[in-house]
Amino acid sequence: MYQNINKAMISPQTSLGDVLKALDAVPEFHVIVVVDENRRLIGTITDGDIRRALLAGKSMNELAGNIAHKNALILPPNSTAAQQRHAMQQRVVRQVIIVDDQNHVLDIITMDSLSSSKPVSNKVFLMAGGLGTRLRPLTETIPKPMLHVGGKPILQTTIEKFVDEGFEDFYIAVNYLPEIIKSHFGNGERFNCNITYIQETKRMGTCGALSLIQEAVQEPIVVMNGDLLTHMRIRNIIDFHNNHSACATMAVREYHFQVPFGVVEIDDCNIKSISEKPEQSFHVNAGIYVVSPEVLRYIPSDTFYDMTTLFEDLKETNLRTVAFPLHEYWIDIGCKEQLEKANDEYLPTQILGQ
């Protein structure tokens, strides 16, 4: 039995915000178990359940009992490892809840605990060719992804995060001052990974360089801008992408904006309502994506092409595109103020999610 199982059990009255904290406290489970006062199973909540609830408009005050998945995979305590593994494979889930004949939760068995640690086969494509114009003069002699946050290059923190999660194979798209990036990372051996460089000969946008991949891609590929930091678990967005049968998935971040004036709604010349400095919320592109292999053929060859354009084109062809709500630490380092903010906030254990 896991020593942390008690930390993975919550009451149905727990708020969604506290569920997130509980998930972060027991990352080995990938699930939180909702139980009654006698530890009897009510349901389970995964990272995907939370993100779907947020997309549906639920707030952080929503109660766990209202979003819990009531049809959790359960097995008795005398089930074998082979039976547990088979049951998880059949249901395409990562954990099984062990309960007694009274439905009391005894244990949580994960696929990871039954399997030897395996590397992630999905490839990673990091966009590092931008000019970093808004960060000049800092970027006059160094590419933006190589600026330091917390004592090391932004891009190094990103690669180390992926490697820590089990990713091994990387593409890095380079254009502006590429030798600085190549000389620092080499072939990736020093960072326990394999790196292939995609050399842009002209500006290609946030997606065009994907057309320069020479080898066949067999699995969904993770694409990420090279100038951001996050402690989102990358495996979660891949699982979300696969579970929703998506062709392309975009991580989105909720952004709040307060209008600095009173907003007047009018009908012709009649005032209908007045809202004093209202706050509006939007979902913004977080610069992290998962794209399936079949999507690559929609990217025009060797030309400027943005990721947002790809998503618009895919929608017009009726291919499924989905949004993955990102609620973890995230910062896009696009200007000096954001660079200073990142250095003020930087905590390696927080950003790497260790």
From TrEMBL:
InterPro entries: CBS_dom, CBS_dom_sf, Mannose-1P_guanyltransferase, NTP_transferase_dom, Nucleotide-diphossugar_trans. It holds the Pfam family NTP_transferase. SMART domains: CBS. Residues 1-63 form the CBS domain. Transmembrane segments: none annotated. This is CBS domain-containing protein. CDD domains: NTP_transferase_like_2. Gene3D superfamilies: CBS-domain, Spore Coat Polysaccharide Biosynthesis Protein SpsA, Chain A. It comes from Thalassospira xianhensis MCCC 1A02616. Keywords: CBS domain.
